[in-house]
Design brief:
Blueprint (H helix, E strand, L loop, with lengths): L6 H26 L1 H10 L2 H17 L6 H24 L5 H20 L5 H21 L2 H8 L2
């Protein structure tokens, strides 16, 4: 017979789902707004500025110095989603070690959001970075609540 999960564990899992959905939205927006992301990146890169001035956005898109932002975002999204699925399942199963790993994941997400905030990205990315920070804080709150501790202690 399985025992019932407390609300804090359920809310941790819901928050984890929201984090995955938000990162999925960010990944899709990186594809949809790829020129805006590319121009934001180019602002801080003198070589990219030179390519942009000489050949425009098309030349910058095709140059070898241009990172594959969407490919990186897609791989990160897939990796994060799979990690969240596994760790969420382990947390729901009462495995206490999933809690500090999820906490570290939330802190890593906060670091990524801070990098996004510091790099002149389009406004929608700033808003979504703030959403990630809030969701990460909520996840940590739910993970370390008394009812989650009690649930994991008796797991």
């Amino acid at each position: 017979m399985s025992r019932e999960m407390p609300g804090s564990v359920v809310n941790s899992l819901r928050t984890l789902v929201l984090l995955v959905v938000t990162t999925g939205v960010i990944t899709a927006l990186i594809w949809l707004l790829r020129d805006d992301v590319l121009l934001a990146w180019a602002k801080g890169n003198p070589s990219a500025q030179e390519i942009l001035a000489q050949g425009g956005i098309e030349a910058l898109r095709e140059d070898q110095i241009t990172p594959g932002f969407f490919a990186l975002a897609l791989v990160a999204f897939i990796g994060f989603s799979l990690t969240a699925l596994v760790l969420g399942s382990l947390l729901a199963g009462g495995h206490g070690w999933a809690r500090p790993v999820l906490t570290a994941t939330a802190f890593f997400g906060a670091l990524v959001a801070a990098v996004c905030l510091a790099n002149n990205l389009p406004t929608i990315f700033v808003v979504l970075a703030i959403v990630l920070l809030i969701l990460g804080g909520a996840l940590i709150f739910f993970l370390w609540s008394r009812s989650t501790s009690a649930y994991l202690r008796h797991g």
